[in-house]
Amino acid sequence: MPLVPGVKTSPYIDFIGSLPRLHRAAPPHPSTLLIGLGAGELVRHLEASGATVTVVEIDPRVEQAARRFFGFDLPRDRIHIEDGRAFLERDRAVYDLVVMDAFLGEDVPGHLYTREALEAIRRRLSPDGLLAINYTSFPDSRDARSLVRTLHAAFPHVRAYTDGTRSAELASNVFVASAHPFALGGIDAAADSSASAFLPNEVDLPEAGALVLTDDYNPINVLRLGANQSWRRAMIRMIGDEPAYWTDF
Could you give the domains of the chain? Predict the structure, then answer.
């Protein structure tokens, strides 16, 4: 995340942040649950689209850094410091949009990507509600295809979008799922720069050979080892020789 305000960051933030406007069936101020805070930029984008946001973040230091360095100012009663899966299992609120943007460094918390976890999310969604997942990997990798197959095990309607990156390169993938058919484009999507990187790049990922990930058998962290290695190399190139960072890392 750049420390300079107003500097553009990842296009996926623009796209997911615009979903309250793009989703034609969304109410004017959709209740939104965000799992994974990061620097808080996604919260600002969602709120700019009219959403009322609740956040679940497992690490209190992430919230502290977001408030100290990145202008994050969500009221404290709307952020829950706990594991996202545990929150989903005990929560009883209903949301119009659930966004999952949870990572462990370059890896993902596998217990949030099983059929049972996705079914827990579906129980928290309103009838026309959407689940959106930011997932960084190779677009047609086995882990991405397994996630799509697992989404189909919990939701009848699933769409996959990429940022247009070639299949041999690490890419931002956004998966959108719902219990009912949905349409994205409630605004003039073609003229909306927030959607321009993803909406034209909807992909149909083949599920042949893909797994349904379950609490009993979930090798997603093994399947994405190649993506994790590629991501780690990119971080090394970007950060360079910074002993204080790498010692702490």
Answer: 11-248 (3.40.50.150)
